[in-house]
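Bit of a strange request maybe. I'm writing a small parser for structure token strings and I need a real example to test against, not something I typed by hand. Could someone generate the tokens for this chain?
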Amino acid sequence: MTATTSYHHGDLRAALLSEASSVLESSGADAISLRGLARALGVSHAAPGHHFPNRTALLAALAADGFDQFADALEQAMAGSEPSGWAAATGRAYVRFALANPERYRLMFTSRLLQEDCPAQLEVASSRAYLALLRAVHGRVPDVDAATYRMGAPELRAWAVVHGAVTLWLDGQLGGLSEPEFVALIDQVVDGAA
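Reply from user aminoacidic:
Good idea to test on real output. This should exercise your parser:
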């Protein structure tokens, strides 16, 4: 069977996202190309274009999936605790998600995908994660529109602590700390900040 005739293998969109996720975590976003994914999946070079018009659309879909998983993790952390403990619980979940998915986390938070012609799927997924942050910080479901809400000091403080710590860790700026030592330190930080 040639690459051109092997296109009909089920859900190509899901297969492209799965293969792109593997490449992302093993080699980073710069290593992802539609042609490379097509080659790896044994489909024609044009086949990915039926689902993703360009590489940016594929990366946006990966980021949206990441934000959905991230929001799930934050919401699950809150489900297991009282509102007074939501900030600490989501802080821990935030860090653990980033450590388990470092390249997806980088794609979600350091790419320009959310700033340049953000696709609706990505905007919805990132807004869901942002609403989980607001809920955790305020101890209730806020009556706000995530797209127009202006961040205040409490949200910025909570986000900056965990995001800054994760970024320092991922960039190798925390010296000789092992990952378990970093996680233990994060636990102390979020307990103190809550």
